Amino acid sequence: MNTKTQVSLLFITVCFIWGTTWLAMELAVATIPPITATGIRFAVAAPLIILLARMKGVTIWFPKGKGLEFILISLFYFAIPFTLMIFGEQFISSGLASIIFANMPVAVLILSVFLQKQKVAIHQLLGLVIALGSLITIIGNEMSVNSHGSLIGVAALVVAVLMHALIYTNVQTRCQGIHVLTYNALPCLVAAVFLMITGYFMETPDLSSFSVLSLSAVIYLGSIAGIGGIMAYFQLNKLASPFQASICFLIFPVIALCLDSLLNGRMLSHESLFLTLFLMLGVLLTKLPEGTFRNKLSFKRS
Asked: Where in the cell is it found (predicted)?
């Protein structure tokens, strides 16, 4: 199989997995409390990731001196933000949740500019303004016309995005060279234990109330979405350029919106759907390589 075909298949796989994840989270939280559901998700994923690491001869242990990074990743990349995502879907539709999370590249760019003083091209700054303006308008519009719209759900998703972006811009730069399986294995296990214990005391889950559909959704999140999503995106980044891989952020919300419409009969308003095109344009501009256009803006340290 040639590289072009591999990239195409990996791209389709990543978009499909990321797009279906949001519906799966909505189905999971229908009968399973969010903290417990996320704990079960990681309890399914962790052994599979550890097994895969063993099969590939990859260590599951973080290097010496990376203990703080390990804790931060376990809590603020896995445990808390993933719980916030599934918690938020109790209040907003899976389609709207996916649109909010698709702004991850925008959040990363904002934090990189203000925390790391990264140079930003004019077209990236323009994309940032377009994406944020579109997102704010969509959220405001959906909260006023959609009964599923809720400030609580939106806030949960926004905080989750910011946590992921903060870890990405700060911790990941200090974890360069760590294999993707190492990065996910033990932090995922720690998150599972932490959430299962927390969920037991805070949510007192009733196992008899868990539906087969919700349990199946959680297993899907832990296995297919967990292992498949991680490895497919990792391989895609190895074979394709970062810009090509980032196009997934433009496609998976479309899949999530289509699934939400087909299975739940929910649709964003026509205005919001139109604004989604501008939002995706903004995200695309933030991910275009800096050399695409000549002019750059530099945010220098004072």
From this structure: Membrane
Helix (H, G, I), strand (E, B) or coil at 69: helix
Q: What pLDDT, in 10s, does the model give residues 170-208?
A: 876 788 888 999 999 999 999 999 999 999 999 999 999
> What 3-state DSSP class applies to 209?
helix
Does residue 244 register a pLDDT over 90? Answer: no
For 250, residues 6+ apart whose C-beta sits below 8 A from its C-beta are 102, 280, 283, 284
Report yes or no: 286 and 107 within 8 Å, Cβ to Cβ.
no
C-alpha 253/C-alpha 95 separation (Å) is: 7
Contact 119, 299 (CB under 8 A): yes
SS3 297: strand
Amino acid at 237: N
Q: Compute the distance between CA of residue 43 and CA of residue 36 in angstroms, rounded to an integer.
A: 10
Q: Which residue has the tokens 């999370």?
A: 101
> H/E element holding 223?
none
Could you tell me the sign of the dihedral formed by the alpha carbons of 199, 188, 221, 47, in that order? negative
Query: How large is the greatest C-alpha to C-alpha distance in the chain, in angstroms?
Result: 61
Tokens of 159: 């905080």
- For strands 296-297 and 120-121, give the pairing: antiparallel
| Intra-chain end-to-end CA distance of the chain, in Å | 52
Tell me: the pLDDT tens digits for 24-53?
A: 999 999 999 999 999 999 999 999 999 999
Nearest to 97 by CA among 22, 37, 21: 22
